[in-house]
Design goal:
Elements (H helix, E strand, L loop, with lengths): L1 E3 L9 E7 L6 E2 L4 E7 L2 E6 L4 E6 L6 E3 L3 E6 L13 E4 L2 E4 L18 H10 L11 H10 L17 H16 L4 H8 L25 H16 L2 E9 L1 H16 L6 H15 L5 E4 L4 E4 L5 E3 L1 E2 L4 E2 L2 E2 L7 H16 L13 E5 L18 E5 L3 E7 L2 E15 L5 H16 L3 H5 L5
Parallel strand pairs: 14-18, 18-19
Antiparallel strand pairs: 1-8, 2-4, 2-7, 3-6, 4-5, 6-8, 9-10, 11-21, 12-13, 14-17, 15-16, 19-21, 20-21
Helix pairs in contact: 7-8, 7-9
Length: about 450
C-alpha cells in the first residue's frame, strides 16, 4: 500500500518537504516521524499512519505536495484504524448544530443556470485528489445523496477540508443566487470571455551586468502571496499619530529588573498588548472580520493578538490568545517564548491562526511612521516606530519628551476615518496613562 499525506488541519491542503527521514528499505512504525513539511510559515513533523518496510519513495526534499498525494510505498503495512463515526450532533463555536432531515434544508425551487466560471473554479479547487472521496460525516453523505448533491463540488471548511452541514447549505444558497441572477447579454459575454491575466514576463538582467539568482524560499513565497492578496483585496487607509511614552518608558526601566527575576523581559510590546486590548474593548469594530461570502460583519468577543516577528527566514506572525485575560508578566513570558519559537521555526501552524488584530513593532530596529498591510481576515493592524526625544510644548514650557510614532492601517470597507481617528486617540491615551498598578500587581503574585 501507499503512505499518503494525511490531512494537515483547517485551511491547509499542501506544503513543501523540508526533510525526508526515511529511504527505501527502512523499517517504520506507526506514529514514527517520516518527514518535515513547511506549510503556512510553519514547519510540522508528519508521522506515519502505517507500519512496515518502506518501498519505493515518490518524493524528495523540496517537492511541493498536497493532501492525499502518495509519499512512499509500504510493504506489509498495517492500515490505520478506521475513524469512528461522528455523532449526529456536534458543537461549532457556541452553537449546537443538529443533522437535519432532507426537508429541513433549503433546496432550490428550480434548477439554476450553468455554473459561472467563478463557481467552476471554486468547485475545481474543492475537488479532492483522484481516488480520494471528499471527507464528510456519514450523515452529510446521506443528506447529499438524498438531495442529489455531488460532494466533490462542495468546498469543505472543516479540519483538513472536511465538509460540514454549513458547507452544504452555502453550496445550495450559492446555486440559488446564480439562478436568480439576470441574464443580460453583457453579463453573458463577460462570463463567457473573462479577461485573461497577463503571464509574468522574465527579464534578462544579465544584459546590463553581473547577476546572481536564488530561488524564493517556500516561506518567502507564502509571504509574497499573502501580501499581494491582502493589498489587492483590501482598500487600505493609514491613520498616523504619536504617543508620549516618557512615563511608560520610566515604568519599564523601573520594573524591568523585577520582571527579569521572574523569568520575563518587560518590553514596550508587552505594554502595547495591554493598551491595544483596552482600546479594542472600546471600539469592537476593530476586532471584527468581514465575511465576504455572506456580506456579514463578524464581531469577535475574544482578543487574540498577532505579533509580527522579524526572522532570518522572513516575517512570521504568531498569535497570543486571550490577551485580555492575562497580566503583564504572563504576556511578557508568552511574548518572548513565541518570538523564540518563531525565529527557530518551531512555531506550529495553529499558533499562526485565529488572530483578531496585529501589532508590528519596529522600534527595536529603528525608523518612524510606516504603513503596515492589514493581515486578512482582520480589519486593522498597528505599526509602532522607534521612540525619539522631541521638544514638546507642555503648558507654557518646552520639555524633552519621548514620542513613539503610531501608524494604524485599516480596511476602509469596514472602518471609516472618523472611527479610526477615535480609536487612535483612545490608544494614545492608553499608552500615556498606563496604570502603574498593572505593572506591579503581577510581581506580588
Amino acid at each position: 500500500m501507499d503512505f499518503r499525506l494525511p490531512p494537515l488541519g483547517e485551511g491547509a491542503d499542501s506544503g513543501t518537504i523540508v526533510t525526508l527521514f526515511v529511504k527505501e528499505g527502512d523499517a517504520i512504525a506507526k506514529d514514527q516521524p517520516v518527514l518535515e513539511l513547511e506549510n503556512e510559515k510553519a514547519v510540522a513533523t508528519i508521522p506515519s499512519t502505517v507500519s512496515g518496510t518502506v518501498g519505493k519513495v515518490y518524493v524528495k526534499a523540496g517537492d511541493k505536495i498536497a493532501v492525499g498525494q502518495r509519499i512512499f510505498a509500504v510493504a506489509e503495512a498495517a492500515a490505520a484504524p478506521a475513524a469512528k463515526p461522528e455523532p449526529e450532533a456536534w458543537r461549532k463555536g457556541e452553537r449546537i448544530i443538529q443533522t437535519p432531515s432532507p426537508e429541513q434544508v433549503p433546496v432550490p425551487r428550480e434548477p439554476g443556470p450553468a455554473p459561472s466560471p467563478a463557481l467552476e473554479e471554486e468547485e475545481e479547487a474543492a475537488t479532492p485528489p483522484a481516488g480520494m472521496p471528499p471527507a464528510a460525516a456519514p450523515s452529510i453523505r446521506r443528506l447529499a445523496r438524498d438531495l442529489g448533491i455531488d460532494l466533490t463540488r462542495v468546498r469543505g471548511s472543516g479540519r483538513g477540508g472536511r465538509i460540514v452541514l454549513e458547507d452544504v447549505r452555502s453550496y445550495i444558497q450559492r446555486l440559488q443566487r446564480l439562478a436568480a441572477q439576470p441574464k443580460t447579454p453583457l453579463a453573458t459575454a463577460s462570463a463567457a470571455a473573462p479577461t485573461p491575466k497577463p503571464a509574468p514576463e522574465s527579464i534578462d538582467f544579465s544584459k546590463w551586468g553581473p547577476v546572481a539568482k536564488s530561488p524564493l524560499s517556500p516561506l518567502r513565497q507564502v509571504i509574497a502571496r499573502r501580501m499581494s492578496e491582502n493589498w489587492n483585496s483590501i482598500p487600505h487607509v493609514t491613520q498616523f499619530d504619536s504617543a508620549d511614552i516618557t512615563a511608560l518608558n520610566a515604568l519599564r526601566k523601573q520594573y524591568a529588573p523585577a520582571y527579569e527575576k521572574k523569568g520575563a523581559r518587560l518590553t514596550l510590546t508587552s505594554f502595547a498588548l495591554k493598551a491595544v486590548v483596552e482600546t479594542l474593548k472600546k471600539h469592537p469594530l476593530f476586532n471584527s472580520s468581514l465575511d465576504e461570502a455572506t456580506q456579514e460583519l463578524v464581531t469577535k468577543h475574544y482578543y487574540h493578538i498577532g505579533i509580527a516577528v522579524d526572522t532570518e527566514a522572513g516575517l512570521i506572525v504568531p498569535v497570543i490568545r486571550d490577551v485580555d485575560k492575562k497580566n503583564l508578566l504572563e504576556l511578557s513570558r508568552e511574548l518572548e517564548e513565541l518570538a523564540r519559537k518563531a525565529r527557530e521555526r518551531k512555531v506550529s501552524a495553529e499558533e499562526l491562526k485565529g488572530g483578531t488584530f496585529t501589532i508590528s513593532n519596529q522600534g527595536g530596529i529603528g525608523g518612524a511612521h510606516f504603513t503596515p498591510i492589514v493581515n486578512k481576515p482582520e480589519v486593522a493592524i498597528l505599526g509602532l516606530g522607534r521612540g525619539a526625544l522631541q521638544a514638546v510644548v507642555r503648558g507654557n514650557a518646552i520639555e524633552p519628551r519621548l514620542l513613539m510614532p503610531i501608524g494604524l492601517s485599516y480596511d476602509h470597507r469596514v472602518i471609516d476615518g472618523g472611527s479610526a481617528a477615535r480609536f487612535t486617540v483612545d490608544l494614545v491615551q492608553a499608552f500615556e496613562n498606563f496604570k502603574e498598578q498593572d505593572v506591579t500587581a503581577p510581581l506580588s503574585q
